[in-house]
Amino acid sequence: MKSSRKRQMQGPGRESMEARGSRAPLRLVFLLLCFYTALPRCCHFLSAEAAPTVVTSLPGFDGALPFRLETGYVTVDEENGAELFYYFIESEGDPRRDPVILWLTGGDRCTVLLFEIGPLKFITEPYYNQNGSVPRLRYHPYSWTKVASVLFVDSPVGAGFSFSRNPKGYDVGEVSTSLLLKKFLTKWFTEHPDYLTNVFYIGGESLGAKIVPFIAQKISEDIEAGLSPLINLKGYLVGNPATGESIDQESRVPFLRGMGIISDQLYETIKEHCQAGDYANSKNVLCAQAMDKFNRLLDEISGTHILYKKCVSASPRPNGQTTERKILKEETGVLRHPPPRPPIDCETYGNYLSYFWANNNITRKTLGIKKGSKDEWVRCHDGDLPYSLDIKSNLKYHHNMTTKGYRALVYSGDHDAIIPFLGTQSWVRSLKFPITNEWRAWHLDGQSAGFTITYRNNLTFATIKGGGHTVPEFEPEKCLAMFSRWIFGEPL
């Protein structure tokens, strides 16, 4: 029997007694009364942690879910009452043997819900929020859950349905968020011991990828110390990854030149007058002027994919509503901060639909969302909550983990202008590992799907042809092929 099912059989009063056994006798009597009379409502508010929810169907999806979905909360900061919300989807292959992956998304406290690598997507069709309806969902055939069990976590605290009872719990940074996630994993695996024998990987994209090697290192240190539970960590993977190094942004200059977006003359001016490592803050007047021109040209394209239509982000800001958003608010009459509506042919249209799906009361009840924990769900917080960028560079963690022999996959979409592959390729080379397999094409259905190179210490770098930021949103079939081959130790 799965541990999650075992935990569901426990009464809420039983957990409360263990957590609060030192409280006054009258409370103990009350708890016993709640437990033995099976009245969960009177006990719920005293329960330290609610049991996970096994979700068999979802609003907007036709029929029963074709995979096992468990949702729940894990308390990671007892002092402030901060809880991280998760979606655990068992592998659709062989969950007893397939890998387990923690997945972290990028952005500013963005949610992992229904984006990137998961098994559900929104149907792209006009939506008018009428009669309490929700946007419709479809099964995603290129989900990574085809070959692995994926633990999606809304992190940092405040992302998605994660919350803190004390506002101080939202004041986190990259280091504290990483440590809270390590605590999350310790508690989650303790409650789900059936998965401890499965090999485990940590994955993330964009800003979420920045903390991945740091978390991996902290887990590896626990393994070396023999601390329980012994997580079967084998490696990590990062896509379009931020590092904290200036190369993440400065590689945009040669990338946009190569793509014909800036001129040779502007490129040469920037290289001549801007100091490497400080393009954005240069006091050189000629550099500042050149970078101003560069940013205007960059603003002419979609940074997430230079070939796609430039669209509104569908991520609302709490302040400064635009006319477009005011009109939408009158139209829907539901959300306090409704997103702008992008054209239906925009890649961001699914982001827009997500607000109406996640803020629906039936959806929240189905997912097991705690009442009062989230006034309004937003896809990303867009700078309205504090977050310290206190990992200045993560390259030493990449070096440490790969030197220890942990496997690592670093991949980039070759049409991403936010964190171009040129910068990623550069810092991978800076680790100075010997090459074991020279640069070559990798294939899908007889065609090149990208290019890859392998280094000593089990480090692989790969590009995905036609991919943007983030890659699985643009090239899901290629990404699944890359992931499934790598995760099972096969050549790309």
What is the first-to-last residue Cα distance?
36 Å
Structural class: alpha/beta
Determine the number of helices (DSSP H or I, runs of at least 4 residues). Answer: 18
Number of strands: 16
Ordered list of secondary-structure elements with their pairings:
Elements: H1 3-8, H2 12-19, H3 25-36, H4 40-44, E1 53-55, E2 69-77, E3 82-89, E4 100-104, E5 120-122, E6 137-139, E7 149-153, E8 163-164, E9 172-173, H5 174-191, E10 200-205, H6 207-210, H7 212-225, E11 233-239, H8 247-250, H9 252-258, H10 264-273, H11 285-298, H12 323-332, H13 349-358, H14 361-367, E12 387-388, H15 395-403, E13 407-413, H16 421-430, E14 435-444, E15 447-455, E16 459-464, H17 471-474, H18 476-487
Parallel strand pairs: 4-7, 4-10, 9-12, 10-11, 11-13, 13-16
Antiparallel strand pairs: 1-2, 2-3, 3-7, 3-8, 5-6, 14-15, 15-16
Could you walk me through the main structural features you see in this protein, from its secondary elements to its overall organization?
Among the domains are: 1-51, no CATH class; 409-487, Rossmann fold, CATH 3.40.50.11320. Helices cover 33% and strands 18% of the residues. It has 18 helices and 16 strands. It has helices at residues 3-8, 12-19, 25-36, 40-44, 174-191, 207-210, 212-225, 247-250, 252-258, 264-273, 285-298, 323-332, 349-358, 361-367, 395-403, 421-430, 471-474, 476-487, and strands spanning 53-55, 69-77, 82-89, 100-104, 120-122, 137-139, 149-153, 163-164, 172-173, 200-205, 233-239, 387-388, 407-413, 435-444, 447-455, 459-464. Strand 2 (69-77) and strand 3 form a beta hairpin. The model is unreliable at 1-47 and 317-333 (pLDDT under 50).
